[in-house]
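Sample entry (914 residues):
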Amino acid sequence: MKRSTVASTLSVLTRCLGVLVPGPEREYLLGDLSEETSRRLAAEGSFKTIAWWTGQATNIAVVAPHWHWRTWRSRQRELAAAAATRTVMLTKEKLMHGVWSDLRFVLRQLSRSPGFVLTSVLILGLGLGANVTIFGLANAVVFKAMPGIQPADEHFMVLSRTEQDRDFEGALSYPDFVDLRLAFGDQAMIAARDAMPVGLRLGDVTERRRGAVVSGNYFSVLGVDPAVGRTLTPEDDQALLSSPVAVISHQLWRDRFGSRQGAIGQQVSLNGTSFEIVGVAPRGFRGDQRFDRVDIWVPMMMQPVARPSGFDVFNERESTWMGVLGRRQVGVPLSTLEPLARSQERDFTAYSPEDTRRREFTLAPGLGPEPAERRAASALIGALLLVTSLVLVIACANVANLILARSNRRVSEISLRRALGAGQGRIVRLLLTESLIVASVAAAVGIAMALAVRGALMNFLPAIARNSGIELAIDARVAGFAILLALASGALFGLAPTVSSNGLRPSRSLAKSSAQGPKSRLRSSLVVAQLALSVVLLMSAGLLLESMRRLQSVPPGFEAEGVLSAAIDLGITQRSPQEMGEFYGSLLERLNESPQVAAAAMSSAVPLSGSGDTFGGLLIEGNEPPPGRPGWSSRVNLVTSGFLETLSIPLLTGRDFDRTDTFSSTPVAIVNRAFQRRYWPDQDVLGKTIDMPYRGKRQVVRVVGLVNDAHYRSLSRAVEPLMYLPVQQRGTARVAVVLRTKAGGTTATLTDTLQRSAAELDNEVPIFAVAPLSAVVNESLSQTRMVGSLISLFGVLALVLASVGLYGVVACLVSERRKEIGIRLALGAKPAAVIKGLFQRCLRLSASAVGLGLLGSIGVGRLLSSFLYGTHALNPSLMFSVAVLLLAVTVLASIGPLLLAARLQPAKVLRADD
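Predicted structure, serialized as tokens:
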């Protein structure tokens, strides 16, 4: 058989075989079969090629049905996917169309009710503004990352030390720091720092700045990169006094060096020692403490010249002076490090056999204040946020009442929508859209209010916060909080008309008058809630104001009027203790000779200024130390002669210090009444002895006087045992100068006298913290005053909002019952009787609110217990006053609508309802 004939025949059969093969496989399969057939004809001949082709055709015929089924199934899947995609797209398009349709409809409806929109936005804006303002404060004090520190994450931590059976929490010793650093190993990096005042000398001028000695890894632990030059490194902190280098703040570099690159390498004098500037910190970085702004950082091993103390602070475990912070490695939880810290806890018997106390290390996440200060700040801000949240709930209830009143006119609309097939979800979406639009506009109003009052809020803060440079800015976190709170509030007050619309039946609603609206029970409940929360806030404000009144009437134990206080720090001048004593003596002589000064003295602590030391390990004559303790403890104030006279602290018995009390004379002390009551009750204190530590040794002091009690820490705390010691016998670098003006003088003239007298002795000695002592006393009450003032303000705001809500409810009640009132008046009822029934209902609402509010105020009073003094939540006179105030507000809020009800004309009312 000719090959050409076989080839043409097999080609025709191959095309016929293609009918069995589905489209996707046909082209490549038949093409391959034709090519292979031609090749085999040329190589193997006709018979072998026909036999091979027959076998291939049989295989194709057998497999073809499977190919057809697979192709059909794939096609069906494609069709299903396309249909699903079209469905999703149609659903999304339909949903978006519905949302935009609702939005356009709601905007048209709101544009027809400008009074409702304006009132709702203002009321809700007030509530949101109060919350945003306080959250802005919380953000600035607690949440906001400190500038320059990277990364600002949760891996930072603060370490502190507590001692068993002792009111102590805070600093660690250098041996503690070394032990913990070794214990943590690679799981965490820890750094140490201690801030102090330094004397910075540039040219011929010496100024007081805030400095800090830090470990060499301080900047690397915080992730702080220099703006210019370099930061400190571990190599700068290897050996004692080996690296006199310093890093300065960006603000100091700008103010004193004009932001010049040439500042790097320049020598500056710190406390009389020359340091080389090696770097500038990034803009905004002022340390890791929220309320402590540092300008200069030097290696910790330069401590003996940067902050001379006279003690071997690097080897004494009892010398606690440094703060410790750290950063955990990623993936290392705080719970992993706590057992490592506990493994380094030791008892004091290692260096004091009679002392069986234990010290414990605590770890707290984050940076900023020490744990105790952080807890106090959190409690304060938490209390304010709780109060503002109550104000917001009142505002939401008020807006909900407005929407309910407005919905009376929309009953027919909602019923018609339901009759035409609209489901509950569609109705809810429409109503929530309206409330969320109002809430969004109110959020903008609230943010604007927070921006407007942030300057005034700063005046409420304590001086330490005002002077720390914190900014009450509206950043992304605060704005996000405002938006989320607004959306939640919109959903909250938007639920009221939603709930009331659930019970509407189209047939009944359409058959009734369009004035028929939601039941008034919900509106009444909202008003009761508003009034009750107002009672809670007013009770809280009353308790705080009563505490403030009682604190202001507490005798401080000294006379603050006409007294000026100021601070002097000779530690920045490298004087010896004897030279310090000579300078202080010369300055006091000049001050006492001034015609404006009635009396002048010095002390290491000014009452109620927050300063002062506590000495432990005291062996007091006639008193055995507590079991397991090496001795007693007492507050100590180092003073010069005339201090008691200057502050008018009465000397009850014995003598004051005089010039004979020097380093070479017998150590003496004066104690207060609290000290006598605790250690020598009903005994004469004169001649008693106290054995106390002094510069690594023991010193026995003899009591030569007894004085009346004076508050040093706080007016709200009981007076503690206190010893006065003469400055001339102890020596101290930093003292406070107190000056009493003569009759008719002012503290302003004393300021000039002090600065002039100090400059005559040494113009490099800075005078700082100059303030009247009365201002110091007033500042000690700043926290209680701030909380009381803010809560009072919020309480008044809540009462105004609640009274507006009550007015609205009474007005709606009169409007809904117009026909009933008209019929009663037409039948001869007297207007007084009509008013009486409505007014009784208002009184029932008010009485319910008072009862609920007083119960709630008991719980809130317990939360505020740390801010209260001399009073408690169960204060009958305050409860009665708040109840009377709420009754008066009820009368004022309801009198207008009730008078309108009494003036209704029956004929007009009945004719309008026909």
